[in-house]
Design goal:
Elements: E1 9-13, H1 17-29, E2 33-37, H2 40-50, E3 54-58, H3 66-76, E4 81-85, H4 90-98, E5 103-106, H5 111-130, E6 134-137, E7 140-143, E8 148-151, E9 154-156, H6 160-171, E10 177-178, H7 179-187, H8 196-208, E11 215-219, E12 223-227
Helix pairs in contact: 1-5, 2-3, 6-7, 6-8
Length: 239
């Protein structure tokens, strides 16, 4: 059984008791503290009082539906939300994501997949919360809000995924990421592409960072990390 630090609280909101019981069982077994609600109004009250680490939120509920709950919560903060629906309708998924949901699952679902998605969303949220508006590594400067990159004060153009990959490495400078973790963080849990996608993007990044004194280093058998000028001579793989 996995251990979750500080007993992260997950609020599971659904009017189907069997869904709630199943989610509680599997999430509790992973070390999460699980609270529940059976309608939208109760969900809002508990979200405001408990301030959970993440909410698993059904769309079709009495009192107030999941869309309305999500609207209220997004006006008040940025608690991660995974939406559930019994309907396999792309419109539901799109509307939910546009309202600010972080992920989406159709019912019935595999409870192990729910646990995996909860972990993935929480990891993305924690990395995002660590960031500052501007991150600097040597003469490399990244404006995360404007999505701009400068080397020695000169703007360098990056495609969307290139920027996301560079920002993830720069926010966590010195941290080694596996290719699988980078795919999950940047391309998302549902991405089924090859991990060589990361290798290709790293090659592109290295070309664009040629005049920077920050470098992306390969940690053989593991993955990649971004290193600052002072640590560029450390062992851990070729560039």
């Amino acid at each position: 059984m996995a251990t979750v630090s500080n007993k992260t609280t997950i609020l599971v909101v659904d009017d189907e008791k069997n869904i709630v019981q199943l989610a509680r069982l599997y999430l509790s077994n992973e070390g999460y503290q699980v609270e529940t609600a059976s309608n939208g109004l109760e969900a809002l009250e508990k979200a405001r009082s408990l301030k959970p680490g993440l909410i698993v939120l059904d769309l079709m509920m009495p009192e107030m539906d999941g869309w309305e709950v999500c609207r209220h919560l997004r006006k008040e903060g940025d608690i991660p939300i995974i939406m559930l629906t019994a309907r396999g309708d792309d419109v539901d998924r799109i509307v939910g994501l546009e309202l600010g949901a972080d992920d989406y699952m159709s019912k019935p679902f595999n409870p192990r997949e729910l646990v995996a998605r909860v972990k993935a969303v929480l990891r993305r949220y924690r990395y995002e919360s660590k960031r500052q508006s501007v991150t600097a590594v040597g003469n490399l400067s990244i404006d995360l809000d404007k999505r701009e990159v400068y080397v020695n004060g000169v703007a360098v153009e990056f495609r969307a995924k290139e920027f996301d990959l560079l920002a993830t490495l720069a926010i966590n400078v010195g941290t080694v990421f596996t290719r699988e973790r980078l795919l999950e963080l940047i391309w998302g849990y549902d991405y089924f592409g090859d991990t060589r996608t990361i290798d290709v993007h790293v090659t592109w990044l290295r070309d664009k960072l040629a005049k920077s004194d920050a470098r992306i280093k390969t940690v053989w058998g593991v993955g990649y990390k971004l290193v600052a000028p002072a640590t560029r001579n450390e062992r851990g793989g070729d560039e």
